[in-house]
TrEMBL record:
Cited CDD domains: PH1_Pleckstrin_2
Keyword rRNA-binding found: no
Species: Hirundo rustica rustica
The name this protein goes by in its record: Pleckstrin-2
Bilayer topology annotation: Peripheral membrane protein
PH domain boundaries: 6-106, 249-355
Location of the protein in the cell: Cell projection, Lamellipodium membrane; Cytoplasm, Cytoskeleton
Database matches in SMART domains: DEP, PH
Any Gene Ontology CC annotation: cytoskeleton
Length: 355
């Protein structure tokens, strides 16, 4: 087995195929000198890897903006010029994988490892900040960001703020220590759809290929809360899901394995947990349209861990370990598998308060 040398990190990522350019979920295992990936069949990792990426001489690009509908990509180019595109389920996951892979690539070069620790520490601040907390503070009527009427090329905008006002506000509220850090945070708020550009100047900047130039620290660039634009969404946008279901604050997201309702087969899905209103939606990570393939309200749901010894009742296909079950108010049973006991606990603890 190749995996005997210490595993640095493992988890689900979505990989672009080499021959047919389709996207498949694979289980990735990061070792000191290579990244192995495995096919998942019936909720289980196959015993031998489907492929390996040798890290020696590899270059990494993150963020990688080559696919418009897949913003959370990491690109690896091997010494032999093979490109690998790997998609993560959230910005935090992407940054964490990118740091660990970069660490493995540079493990033999102490100078670069020092540089990496510096990078890690400068992001420490960002990791410990919840974007939801920032947005809540921004809305605060006394300490929040001041909303004003602004003119942009003859158009009048109500309830907006300028890029430089947000940067000042983030620093004065100790969310960031430098303007560079505040711009990074503001870009994250924009990426996660908490704020949006209004007017020509700020909208044009979002088309920049350089992530550090997407948000403008500028007193003529205007932004507003994305919330206030909710009313303009057309009814066509969500065919199956009421737009209000998808408007809640994202509390947690990640890849989990779910048992199908009809065919009872196990598939990897990206789960997104939202509050206000409390819903759990799941998406097919191989598709680009970013529409949920299923979801349900958490009000009145029961969630519980399932027995780890043997296959619990209701579970098909000899899948066992790290399972949990959600029973909806309408008595529909969802069987879900996490990739570790700790991950199962985190999901259950995140869902419980919303039921």
């Amino acid at each position: 087995m190749e995996e005997e040398a210490g595993v640095l990190k493992e988890g689900f990522l979505v990989k672009r195929g080499h021959v047919v350019r389709n996207w498949k979920v694979r289980w990735f295992v990061l070792l000191q000198d290579k990244l192995l990936y495995y096919k998942i069949e019936g909720g289980k990792k196959e015993p031998s890897p489907k492929g390996r990426i040798l890290l020696d001489g590899c270059t990494i690009t993150c963020p990688c903006l080559e696919y418009e509908n897949r913003p959370l990509l990491i690109k690896l180019k091997t010494k032999t010029n093979t490109d690998y595109f790997l998609e993560c389920c959230s910005r935090e996951e992407r940054d964490s994988w990118a740091l660990d892979i970069t660490g493995a690539i540079h493990a033999g070069h102490p100078v670069q490892v020092q540089e990496l620790h510096r990078m890690k520490n400068s992001f420490k601040l960002l990791e410990n900040i919840s974007l939801h907390n920032i947005v809540e503070r921004m809305y605060d009527s006394s300490a929040g960001i001041k909303l004003t009427r602004n003119l942009d090329q003859g158009n009048r905008y109500k309830e907006t703020f300028t890029g430089s006002a947000l940067v000042d506000w983030l620093i004065s509220n100790s969310f960031a220590v430098s303007r560079f850090e505040a711009v990074t945070l503001a870009s994250m708020l924009m990426d996660e759809n908490f704020i949006k550009p209004v007017g020509v100047r700020s909208t044009e900047a979002t088309r920049s290929s350089d992530p550090s130039e997407k948000f403008l620290d500028d007193s003529t660039a205007l932004y507003m809360f994305a919330e206030s634009s909710k009313k303009n969404t057309s009814s066509k946008e969500e065919v199956y899901f009421n737009i209000s279901e998808l408007s809640g604050t994202i509390v947690k997201q990640g890849f989990l394995v779910k048992q199908g309702h009809k065919r009872k087969n196990w598939k990897v899905r990206k789960f997104v947990l939202r509050a206000d209103p409390a819903f759990l939606h799941y998406y097919d990570p191989t598709k680009e349209d970013n529409k949920p393939v299923g979801g349900f309200s958490l009000r009145g749901c029961l969630v519980s861990a399932l027995e780890d010894n043997g296959v619990p009742a209701g579970v098909k296909g000899n899948v066992q370990g790290n399972l949990f079950k959600i029973i909806t108010k309408n008595d529909i049973h969802y069987y879900i598998q996490a990739s570790s006991k700790a991950e199962r606990v985190q999901w259950i603890e995140a869902i419980k308060p919303l039921t």
